Structures are given as structure tokens and as C-alpha cells.
Amino acid sequence: MVTTLADARRARHIAEGVPDPELPMLTLADLGVLRDVRVEADGTVVADLTPTYSGCPAMSEMRADVAARLRAAGYEQVRVRTVLDPPWTTDWITPQGRRKLAEHGIAPPGPAPRPAPGPVPLVLSATRRTVPCPRCGSADTEETSRFGATSCKALWRCLACREPFEYVKEI
Q: Where are the beta strands (DSSP E) in 13-140?
């Protein structure tokens, strides 16, 4: 049974190290998807995850990976919850996560647009006009496809170094 603050910190540290299944250079903590890890009165370790969008197909794998890592570390009672409010934003990607994206040739997002009051729009914001190349730093780039390997990314090409790259869209 988990009873001490040190146990709770250890559980958090373990959950923070779980890699994202779609961007494995990032942990769930780097991506800002891991929202909370706590211990309930009965000793159950509870981890809260917020998906990058409500239909994210990787959520079941994320939940399973967090639970498996915690159980492998000796925590018998584990519950992983999906928390949708507030919705995830690319602003939650840590500075370390942004650095890791760029180091792996993926342009990190800029600041997320601020939502207008009223109903939540069902579309992503327009792509930034300038996306610097993560390889050479040039701003002379162009979008080649609004849609990439995941719905969170677009495909771009650098006109200076001629290399293609993915770009994480601001959400």
C-alpha cells in the first residue's frame, strides 16, 4: 500500500517517464498529457491524462502504458483516468519537449491561439504563416500538406536546405 509522500513522488516520477506512443522522443510529461498523479486514501495510485484531442487513438495505449509501468514498479492498485476539461493545448508542451521535437526534426508549435468566447470550434486553427525549419533554422519554408502522420501535425518543406519536416500545429 502506498502511504508516504515519498511513495507518491516516486509514482509521479515513474508516470512522468512514460513515452508518448506517437512521438516517442517525448514523455507524456513533456507533451503535457500527464496532468496529475496522486494517491487516494485507500492507497490507489491515480494518474490523470488529458488527450491531445478527444478522439486521440493513442489514449488507450497511453493509459495502458502508465498503468503497466506503475504496476511493474510495485504499485498494486492503479487507476488511470481520462480528463477532458480543461482541454489540452500545445501550450502545455514543456520547453524540454519543444527542444526534443526540434532535435528530432519536428518543428514545435508556437503559442496556441486564444479561443473566442462561445462554443468550442470543431476545427484546428489556421497554420502559422512562417514555420522555421528545425534542421537549418531558415524561415523560407512552405506547407506541402495540412495533414501529417497524425492529425496534430502538418508536412512542410524548407526551401533553403530542401529538407521536408513535420510541424506540430498549434491547438
A: 34-39, 45-49, 78-82, 106-107
Q: CA–CA separation, 33 vs 86, rounded Å?
A: 12
- What's the Cα-to-Cα distance from 97 to each of 20, 45, 54, 100, rounded to whole Å? 11, 25, 21, 5
Q: Which residue has the higher pLDDT, 23 or 114?
A: 23
Q: Is the pLDDT reported for residue 84 higher than 60?
A: yes
Strands (E), 31-99: 34-39, 45-49, 78-82
Provide the grid cell at 111: 503559442
| Composition of the chain by helix, strand, coil, percent to 5 | 25, 20, 55
Q: pTM of the entire structure?
A: 0.85
